[in-house]
Specification:
CATH superfamily of the largest domain: EAL domain
Radius of gyration: 35 Å
Structural class: alpha/beta
Strand order of the largest sheet: 8-9-11-12-13-14-15-16
Distance between the termini: 50 Å
Largest sheet: 8 strands, mixed, barrel
Number of strands: 16
CATH topology of the largest domain: TIM Barrel
Helix content: 40-55%
CATH architecture of the largest domain: Alpha-Beta Barrel
Number of helices: 26
CATH class of the largest domain: Alpha Beta
Shape: elongated
């Protein structure tokens, strides 16, 4: 990553340049003061060009500084073929000093680079000597083969020295297995094999040597293009940090003697910066966040931008969850300091999820665990959460279920096994069907039917949830279009997860679906939970406001089971609240449950919201809800969840039921319970 963040010049760098220059100068004089005194002008011309061209070395972004390609090897290789190792090494050392000063290398790295090229030239000279190479006479095919062998020896010797030095200075850690790019090897070979061509031209007349600069420029452009291509695939263009692909590569490199931790950071309320100051200011803020994280994270750890306002840190020296928490707290404190932006101090915080890696090389699993911990931190209102092996929703069985679901969602319906059931919602005052709720089922090829609670618990903390929501939304909107075409328009409610709301693009996806199927927005209703609201209220407010402006109704599901503040009912663009079934089921026998239900209905009435009761399963509960002024009922007393085809048949048989005196169940004389019998519904209640 040396090229990613250049260092600034300082006294230490100046001392390094002075020491390395003097050392290389002494070595060069010692080598040249003997046989080099009688060298021809062609040698001195090539030596001068070698030093000049290394003022602009070829650096592939993201590679180690010791893997830099020096254009001077073209001339030093030509020198070693014609005049031996000593003059070539002298020229190369002088060029290495120039390149090291240009790239602001430390003395250690400059010496490392010099050792590599010295060994490479020595190996090439040995091969040329053993092959009895002749460059001053007319060369033949044997000489060409010897030159190719000398170039191969040069490359092999340099790689060997680089690997040896890396092994000796790695403190016992396993060296990273980086594959050298084809462009690196091709550029090195091209420069080496250009050497004999340059040599022949120099022996004819040194005046032709400057023409080689054009070929060197072409090689430079090739290396630069390859570097930019590699950087685009492994680095984030906005911040210059490594991206998700680079993180996965790093996590796949296992360090057997150390535990590592992945810390996933999601910035809280970042969207408010975009709204208040514009996306340009938001981009600058992300860059400053990247700079601050890079400044506080040690060099042996990796800072990554995953995308949007998500960052990650791969900590490589973590012994236990407590040390991982200390790192997370250090990062949180660094981000808590205000960021000056256009004269305005911007306050930021981050929710951090931690996953520990010990002897496991599955990068995707580690990412899922860290992301799950991050969402857990948001839902609990904590800043840091650690994924633990005792987390029930992330057992191997659950992870296997999520993997199977991801595979199923790649198939086309109905081969994916996803099935939607619809449960009618009845207006209590009139008995009319005012809508339905779409409830999810999945027919697993081996497990059988997977219930919605188990399915959603496993999928919601993972990216698979967004794929599942997209699949459900498309089927529901298509069904709305079919009902509308059949002149039986119904409103359908769909549950969306916290992940969908936090992603921010669900409004665009819903709008595109409604436009594609020509469905009015008021026929679709989205249900959100209190847990999604608590995780990030500002982001949820932004997303729901966009949906409301489109005409899509928003319902707050399972109201009363979470910890949301009542001010959210006032601020959010809600159309209704759904009273959780745990209160409705017991209201006929428990005075406390009945009091809670009546309070929620009164609160909804005061705020101009509809109150919907879930879990209405008997006549007594239905009548109590009617007396309390509840607007809508949903439950087995009216109908169980059923597929769309069965719902169409049920609608033809259903007669509106209105509450009256005891014994007057149906104003039309038809019992609702009898109208539902024999339809083949599941034998036990299920919410989803």
């Amino acid at each position: 990553m040396d090229a990613a963040r250049p260092r600034t010049a300082g006294p230490r760098h100046r001392r390094t340049v002075i020491v390395s220059t003097v050392t290389a100068g002494v070595a060069a004089l010692a080598l040249l003061l003997g046989p080099a005194a009688a060298l021809p002008p062609a040698f001195w011309m090539m030596a001068l060009l070698a030093i000049l061209v290394d003022a602009r070395p070829y650096v592939v972004p993201g590679r180690r500084a010791s893997a830099v390609i020096l254009p001077s090897i073209c001339f030093s290789f030509a020198v070693v073929l014609a005049w031996g190792a000593a003059p070539a090494i002298a020229v190369q050392l002088a060029a290495v000093v120039v390149a090291g000063a240009r790239m602001r290398h430390s003395l250690r790295r400059t010496v490392h680079l010099g050792l590599q090229h010295t060994a490479a030239l020595g190996a090439a000279a040995a091969v040329a000597g053993m092959g009895r190479l002749r460059v001053d006479a007319s060369p033949d095919w044997w000489d060409a083969l010897v030159i190719c062998a000398a170039a191969a020896a040069w490359i092999t010797a340099r790689l060997a020295v680089a690997g040896l030095v890396r092994a000796l200075t790695s403190d016992g850690r396993v060296p990273s297995r980086r594959r050298r790019g084809h462009a690196d090897l091709l550029a090195t070979a091209a420069l080496l094999l250009l050497g004999p061509v340059v040599l022949v031209a120099a022996l004819v007349t040194p005046i032709l040597l400057p023409l080689a600069l054009l070929a060197l420029h072409a090689v430079h452009r090739m290396v630069r293009w390859a570097g930019e291509s590699e950087r685009a695939t492994r680095f984030d263009t906005l911040t210059g940090l490594p991206n998700r692909r680079a993180l996965q590569t790093a996590m796949a490199e296992r360090a057997p003697d150390r535990r590592r931790a992945l810390l996933l950071l999601d910035l809280d309320r970042f969207r408010t910066v975009n709204d208040a100051l514009g996306h340009g200011a938001g981009d600058r803020l992300l860059t400053r966040v990247a700079d601050r994280l890079t400044a506080v994270v040690p060099a042996h750890d990796l800072v990554v931008r995953l995308g949007g306002d998500e960052f990650a840190v791969l900590a490589t020296r973590v012994e236990d969850p407590a040390s991982a928490r200390r790192i997370a707290q250090h990062l949180a404190e660094a981000l808590s300091r205000p960021f000056p932006l256009d004269g305005t101090p911007v306050e930021l915080s981050a929710s951090i999820g931690i996953a520990l890696q010990s002897g496991r090389r599955d990068a995707s699993t580690l990412l899922v665990e860290a992301e799950s911990a991050m969402y857990e931190a948001k839902q609990r209102g904590d800043q840091v959460a650690v994924h633990g092996p005792d987390a029930a929703k992330h057992t191997p069985d659950r992870l296997s279920l999520v993997a199977d679901l991801r595979t199923a969602l790649r198939r086309e319906p109905p081969d994916d096994g996803i099935v939607l059931y619809y449960q009618p919602q009845i207006a209590i005052a009139t008995g009319e069907v005012v809508g339905v709720e779409a409830l999810l089922r999945w027919r697993h090829p081996e497990r059988g039917t997977v219930g919605p609670e188990e399915l959603l618990r496993a999928a919601e903390p993972t990216p698979v949830m967004r794929l599942l929501t997209a699949r459900v939304l498309e089927e529901v909107v298509a069904q709305l279009a079919a009902w509308r075409a059949a002149r039986t328009p119904l409103r359908a409610a769909v549950n969306v997860s916290a992940r969908d709301l936090h992603a921010g693009d669900i409004a665009d996806r819903v709008g595109a679906l409604l436009e594609r199927y020509a469905v009015p927005a008021d026929l679709l209703q989205l249900e959100i939970t209190e847990s999604a609201l608590m995780a990030d209220p500002h982001r949820v407010l932004e997303t729901t406001t966009r949906l409301c402006r489109m005409g899509v109704a928003i319902s707050l599901d399972d109201f009363g089971t979470g910890y949301s503040s009542l001010q959210h009912l006032r601020r959010l663009p809600l159309s209704e609240v759904k009273i959780d079934r745990s209160f409705v089921l017991g209201m006929a026998t428990d005075r406390g449950d009945a009091a809670i239900v009546r309070s929620v209905i009164g609160l909804a009435e005061a705020l101009g919201l509809r109150a919907v009761a879930e879990g209405v399963e008997d006549e007594a509960t239905w009548r109590l809800l009617a007396a309390a002024g509840c607007h809508t009922a949903q439950g087995w007393f009216h109908a169980r969840p059923m597929p769309a085809a069965d719902l169409a048949d049920w609608l033809t048989r259903y007669r509106p039921v209105r509450p009256g005196k005891r014994g007057e169940i149906d104003s039309a004389g038809t019992s609702t319970t009898s109208s539902n019998e024999g339809a083949g519904w599941p034998p036990s209640p299920a919410k989803r």
